[in-house]
Known about the structure:
By secondary structure, the protein is an alpha/beta fold. Helices cover about 40% and strands about 15% of the residues. It contains 13 helices and 15 strands.
Amino acid sequence: xSGPVRTAxxxxxxxxxRGVNSxxxxxxLALIDxxxxxxxxxxxxxxxxxxxxxxxxxFDTALSTTTGRRNLQYAPTEGNPALREHLAExxxxxxxxxxPADLLITTGSQQALxxxxxxxxxxxxxxxxxxxxxxxxxxxxxxxxxxxxxxxGDEGGIDPDALAEVLRREPVRVLYLVPTFANPTxxxxxxxxxxxxxxxAAAHGVWIIEDDPYGQLRxxxxxxxxxxxxxxxxxxxxxxxxxxxxxxxxxxxGWLRAPASVLPALVVAKQAADLHTSTIDQAAAAxxxxxxxxxxxxxxxxxxxxxxxxxxxxALRDALPAGSSCxxxxxxxxxxxxxxxxxxxxxxxxxxxxxxxxxxxxxxxYAADPDHATLRLSFTSNPPNTIAEGVRRLGxxxx
Length: 399
């Protein structure tokens, strides 16, 4: 027996999806999935550096006969208590005094962004971002119906004077920043600017979202306390962290440190989203932090990634055409390049792929006034000799 024949058009998608573009990074990762391409496109940690043995042991512990059944059950939305204690201790040691009760465990820090958009942003609310900024944050804010306003910066990060002008002109609700080894530029906001940004936010009553997935991957220079540690930002700063870059992205574990005034709303938003983050993954992460030396693991990452950063910066000096500029990041995962003249790196990407090398064109990272002559290169997922060959291919493509 056949069903009824539909004559009406298919129901429409939600209006909030209109104008929210797919991530070109995700699309590019699917396009270049062949072994002959040297990819500098995705911001991927090196899989050969994952602590596979330590994580296997941690999962064995989490699935032991004494705790395994409990760790496979539903759990509180706020997260595993032992994991929150470990993270609070680590954040406090980084200069951001934190109590376990300040933390919400999330399914990656990307979910934390989504929860913040739900709790803080009504349709039409204004979000200020450094220009350029993290692609998926732009997606998140656009999906929430926010109006994103770009703030100019320079090699030192967001410009406090430009931010002050935007705050005078616009009713900004949220300021979003990646202040340490920013994606895509690799820039770091210095201590003086952090203080100025915090004071401006306090003066105008603006929430600060500090996205910090890369802060522990420093290869030279002195560590800076998180922006959220600035006294002026104490009741306004929301600090996001992640295991993806220092542990493994497949765990999908992040955390959100929030003032007591907003944390209950975030818990409700998370309950509506997924009830709680994977209980077994949280238990394994807690077991890993209890039994392993995460700082020693991060030190190994810094050594390996630092050598890869050096290889890329050195190779780019020889490969880029005259008049180009390239960032010299102190940490993180990315180099940011601007080519001379009136060029479009989205067009150049096709030539690069023909030379079996990939990058991400820079224009999609801009909230306004995109610079089409820019591109992002990630150095973490390839060893130095492969980086040298990939940059050589890139140089040929650019010529």
